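Most newcomers find our protein records easier to grasp once they have seen one. Read left to right, the backbone structure tokens trace the chain's path through space. Once this layout is familiar, the rest of the handout is easier to follow. The record below serves as our worked example for the rest of this section:


***
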Amino acid sequence: MTTQQALVQPAVEVPEHKSGLVFKPYDLQCIHQAHTILSKDPPPKMTNEALALEVGINRNKLHYGFKHVYGQTITHFLEQQRMQKAELLLSTTYKSVKVIAALTGYCNSSRFGSVFKKTFGMSPVQYRKQCRNARALQRACNNATVA
């Protein structure tokens, strides 16, 4: 569907939204595009305003539409994406926590640590240690089975 075709499509009203915002198919397409951008590799420093500009929609429509379509705010979704990336990096690399914090979009490694602990119930260092212990235990079990 071209942009011109999307603009002439009938509007879709979001009944449960108290602001009375109306979302056209083009708006929904932009909201899905924003989700795709955030899902691929979360940008380190992207504001909602910059994301709205990139996908071509008003910031308020993006904010409310994203929450309506995906059931969570952009900020919460982005935090989840960053934590998944952090979890992967901690369990598969030897990069420092400070580097991983930066790679996941946190300027402050202590803020990263507190968000990680809130999400996973342990600090990034404890998580890495737990992953390494689990891998060592699995290797020991595999070696015992082979022998």
Notes: Residues 124-146 form the longest helix (23 residues).
